[in-house]
UniProtKB/TrEMBL annotation:
Hydrolase among keywords: yes
GO MF term list: aspartic-type endopeptidase activity
Higher taxonomy: Eukaryota, Viridiplantae, Streptophyta, Embryophyta, Tracheophyta
Organism listed in the record: Ambrosia artemisiifolia
Keywords associated with the record: Aspartyl protease, Glycoprotein, Hydrolase, Protease
Protein name from the UniProt record: Peptidase A1 domain-containing protein
Length: 516
């Protein structure tokens, strides 16, 4: 092939030969001899073009290039604390629209959709005790905003994540929460701006078109200025979650990971990408469930398997089961498993500690030595042979002191008549937790979360072998320290009031749920 180029607004490309040999014994001629194609400039020479337009055009091309490189690790700036007496939630800054504006949204692994408050909004708070600006998204002020019509296939997809409907040919939604609050609005698509870390640990400014909710009404606790945020950032599994959308565009891997520091200072690491560590173990995700459900087979205390029927941990009529939820502060066991668990712990330490029953029936112990020296190790054993090993600090909570002795209480609770087991921050801390959506599995490893981690740019695709960073075939591994990301925990839409006294512990919670 030869080509002749003319330096004008149109370029002539002359093909002198173009025969394509196809499969089997067939050859197709795709053009005549010769064939001339006219190429035109996207922006004529004599036309002034805004720099922002050129940058946006380049970013689209860069995303296509990144698609061939399995995307990059996405870093969202995150703030907040797990302490319910301070903030009690974690929120990330996202940038939406053209020109981009900042929105601070609460991170929630228990829901799927990103939504932000829009203008006008009925009942939306205009100030926050978190000292963050309460920005409202205005579709008319963004040059790249588009409403999602009822005929759009993404509107049908939205029905998996919310009560969806159609209002004035706009795809609408309604979310309800366990504390009685809620929000409603309509879906839009617009550019999300973020930083990606690609090969060579280079940080690139990127953008992608995503669908999110534009909230026009809020009720209940969402209307309060106390700890108010601009919206909710769902980290669930549906096609409308930001993880799924970025992954389908090749912008980011189809996995995310966190490592939560269990010390008083808190903090940790959150990346959209898969942290790789030699000692990782994996168990399959249960499919067709709205949450991150896994199969818990048994519990061992001090090496002895408890006599609990495995069906206690199973899903029955879409209820029960075991959920990994970093949005839950404590952890919960099905009612038929909690008592055998507590009894085994108590029996193991009966000669070393003084048991104490609080007014709220929480099992507590008075001890005069280190809990690590007194209390037994615990293992939660999952499908595929993966075990999660718990130290005493992973199932106990320290309370007030009595006469110089420490009071520690069982941190596992139960939810009446639900038959559900929830692994919350109490057990997830000081561990790498990987949500490998592409591989349909969840993995973990004990880890010092104040240390750096290695992150793969690609999912393992469900392979079960343990690999070291840099040895994942076809992937790129990066090293990220907790100081390169703002220290975080992931917290779902949960508010806890924790009133801890020596013999009286009271917990209330409002967990985000979804009504379909």
């Amino acid at each position: 092939m030869s080509a002749s180029f003319h330096a004008v607004n149109t370029v002539t490309l002359t093909l002198t030969c173009a025969v394509v040999f196809m499969l089997s014994q067939t050859a197709l001629v795709r053009c005549m001899f010769p064939s001339t194609l006219t190429l035109e400039r996207a922006f004529p020479v004599n036309q002034r073009v805004e720099l922002s337009q050129l940058r946006h055009r380049d970013s689209l091309r860069h995303r296509r290039i990144l698609q061939q490189q399995s995307g990059g690790v996405v870093d969202f700036p995150v703030k907040g604390t797990y302490d319910p007496l301070r903030v009690g939630l974690y929120y990330a800054k996202v940038q939406l629209g053209s020109p981009p504006k900042d929105y601070y949204v609460q991170i929630d692994t228990g829901s799927d959709v990103l939504w932000v408050g829009c203008t006008p909004c009925n009942g939306c708070p205009t100030s926050s005790t978190l000292q963050i600006p309460m920005e409202f998204y205005d579709p008319s002020s963004s040059s790249t905003s588009h409403a999602i019509s009822c005929a759009d296939q993404r509107c049908a997809q939205a029905a998996q994540s919310s009560d969806s409907g159609c209002l004035d040919n706009q795809c609408s939604y309604k979310f309800r929460y366990g504390d009685g609050s809620g929000t409603s609005g309509y879906y839009v698509s617009d550019l999300m701006h973020f930083d990606t870390i690609a090969q060579g640990s280079k940080s690139l400014s990127s953008s992608a078109s995503v669908v999110f909710g534009c909230s026009t009404a809020q009720t209940g606790d969402l209307t309060k200025s106390d700890r108010a945020v601009n919206g909710i950032f769902g980290f669930g599994q549906s096609g409308l979650s930001i993880i799924s959308q970025l992954s389908s565009q090749g912008v980011a891997p189809d996995a995310f990971s966190h490592c939560l520091i269990g010390s008083d200072d808190g903090g940790g690491i959150l990346v959209i990408g898969q942290i790789v560590e030699p000692n990782m173990v994996y168990t399959p995700l249960i499919q067709s469930q709205p949450h991150y459900n896994i199969n818990l087979r048994s519990i061992s205390v001090n090496g002895q398997t408890l006599s609990i029927d495995p069906s206690v941990f199973a899903i029955s009529d879409n209820q029960g089961g075991t959920i990994v939820d970093s949005g839950t502060t404590l952890s919960y066991l099905a009612e038929d498993a909690l008592n055998p668990f507590v009894d085994a712990i108590t029996q193991s330490v009966s000669q070393s500690v003084q048991p104490l029953i609080s007014k709220k029936a929480n099992k507590c112990y008075i001890i005069t030595s280190s809990v690590s020296d007194v209390f037994p190790p615990v293992s939660f054993n999952f499908e595929g042979g993966a075990s999660m090993h718990l130290r005493p600090q992973d199932y106990l909570l320290q309370q007030n002191s009595v006469g110089g002795a420490e009071v520690w209480c069982i941190g596992f609770q139960s939810i009446s008549n639900q038959g559900i087991t929830i692994l919350g921050d109490l057990v997830l801390k000081d561990k790498i937790i990987v949500y490998d959506l592409g591989g349909k599995r969840i993995g973990w490893s004990d880890y010092d979360c104040s240390s750096s981690v290695n992150v793969s740019l690609a999912s393992n695709g469900g392979r079960n072998e343990v690999v070291n960073a840099g040895q994942v075939g076809g992937s790129i591994s990066l090293q990220i320290t907790r100081y390169e990301l703002i220290p975080i925990f992931i917290l779902g839409f949960i508010h806890y009031t924790w009133l801890a006294h020596t013999t009286d512990i009271h917990i209330t919670s409002s967990i985000m749920t979804r009504t379909l």
